[in-house]
Fold:
Amino acid sequence: MLLQLDALMTALLIALFLLLLTTLLPWLISVTSSKSKVVKEELVELVGCPKCGYESSRKYEKGDYVGKVVGTCPKDSNSLIVKAIYVEKHTYAQ
Ligand SMILES: [Zn+2]
Structure:
């Protein structure tokens, strides 16, 4: 009887340990990974040629806006226009 109870207790302890491990492990991973990663937000703009469909992205420059002519198309020398401005998130591992 005593041996049976012992085995039951051991099984319970193992089950409890596994439960703790499975609940704690994802939490631990998320805590440690969020600390070692750096999230950097960068303003990027999409420039494109409305004639041939050429598209390129570049860093946002102060004063730029959607519809602004920012250069000439390398393919057909038409005007390159800012099509969109958006934030790009980069995650770096430290
Ligand atoms: Zn073009």
Notes: The pocket of zinc ion is lined by residues 49, 51-52, 54, 73, 75-76, 78 (CB under 6 Å).
